[in-house]
């Protein structure tokens, strides 16, 4: 039985290229493509698939750049495996993604030659760093041992701060003192390997990376974004 795959990328030309590469393999069935989270959710509502190949922007919830729709997709596809596809290279980013259970990382430089390897690794739940990232794999393991994952509260605080709220406003919203919020923020930024607010906002808005790290985990409250048609295509 072929591996059923959905390709999602916020850049349409990249999405087309990934789709063409996937179609070359007889053991891979390209279920469809999407350019945003609404398109992915629409595909998930009508199809079952095994692996999602996605960049960080395509999985972001429409109304919240720091939340992904992966937990919502898993309501339809509980055994979904993820291939994170993009230009990521920062060690702390790679380690944080692994801590969230995203163990297959494919750099854009390796798409043509190594996409099938990444898909197969994800399908069998193996750990895989594509060649352009292989040098970072041992260091990412060490970083994971040294730094635990973001806690639920740390994720909540970062998401609120990145939505534009001040430390005081976040403190009032979750009924904590300002010093506690500042401490959560500092610990979370250290785990993500950033020292300045500007770098934190870049991770969220330019790289889109925080959609992987701040998305809800099992047991967290889910907020279902509205879906619209037009964001998907099926072969």
TrEMBL record:
GO terms for biological process: regulation of DNA-templated transcription. One of its GO terms (molecular function) is DNA binding. The keyword DNA-binding applies. PANTHER family: TRANSCRIPTIONAL REGULATORY PROTEIN RCSB (PTHR43214:SF17), TWO-COMPONENT RESPONSE REGULATOR (PTHR43214). Transmembrane segments: none annotated. This is Two-component system, NarL family, captular synthesis response regulator RcsB. Coiled coil: none annotated. It comes from the Bacteria.
């Amino acid at each position: 039985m072929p591996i059923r795959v959905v390709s999602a990328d916020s850049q349409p030309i990249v999405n087309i290229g990934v789709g063409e590469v996937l179609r070359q393999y007889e053991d891979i069935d390209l279920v469809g493509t999407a350019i945003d989270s609404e398109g992915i959710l629409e595909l998930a509502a009508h199809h079952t698939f095994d692996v999602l190949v996605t960049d960080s922007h395509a999985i972001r919830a429409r109304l919240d750049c720091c939340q992904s729709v992966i937990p919502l997709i898993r309501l339809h596809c509980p055994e979904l495996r993820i291939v994170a596809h993009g230009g990521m290279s920062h060690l702390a980013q790679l380690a944080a993604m692994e801590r969230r259970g995203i163990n297959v990382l494919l750099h854009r430089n390796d798409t043509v030659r190594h996409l099938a390897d990444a898909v197969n690794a994800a399908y069998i739940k193996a750990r895989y760093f594509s060649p352009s990232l292989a040098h970072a794999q041992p260091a990412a393991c060490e970083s994971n041992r040294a730094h635990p994952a973001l806690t639920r509260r740390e994720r909540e605080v970062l998401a609120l701060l990145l939505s534009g709220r001040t430390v005081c406003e976040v403190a009032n919203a979750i009924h904590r003192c300002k010093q506690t919020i500042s401490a959560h923020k500092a610990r979370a930024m250290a785990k993500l390997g950033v020292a300045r607010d500007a770098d934190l906002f870049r991770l969220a808005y330019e790289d889109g990376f925080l959609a992987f790290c701040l998305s809800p985990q099992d047991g967290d409250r889910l907020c279902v974004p509205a879906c619209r048609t037009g964001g998907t295509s099926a072969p």
